[in-house]
Amino acid sequence: MATHASREAAMVQVRVAGVALDASRQHVILLKPVDEIPGAGRVLPIWIGEQEATSILIAVEAAPTPRPLAHDLMKTLLETAGAAVDRVEVTRIEEGTYYAEVTVATPQGSRSVDCRPSDAVALASRTGAPIWVADAVMDEAGVTDMLADAEETEAAEQKVDEFKRFLDDVDPDDFRS
């Protein structure tokens, strides 16, 4: 089994950039490399279920819930057993299906468990564990950060509008010495 250090060389650490709905109203989580600024680079879209999307959003936004959700229960079970989530990894994509692992530090040593990426991300979002994506997955399924590009375009348009208003209101005498 490869060590974390050797696997990290072929992986990129990501953060949850957002949860969105695609054109067909399917939930998608967007994972973005932590070292990339908004509007630059790529994001990895992973389509997930509505319940998982809600669970991730609740964790990312630290929103209170009246009762624990399934991922809250997972976290509590691990803590009760003296274990902690060490990291989560999106390890591969096969025929459009993403695969992930949760690595748990236990009193008996480190254990990796196969899981869905949505569950891994929901659990990492609750525990503060780092999220990693295999370079091969990012290369195959990563897309240009279009959301940030749209925000940059909107910001640029606002600056142009602001400049136009300035030109409309400026008096040439304001520039004479």
From TrEMBL:
Pfam families: BFN_dom. Residues 11-145 form the BFN domain. It comes from Microbacterium aquimaris. This is Bifunctional nuclease family protein. InterPro entries: BFN_sf, Bi_nuclease_dom.
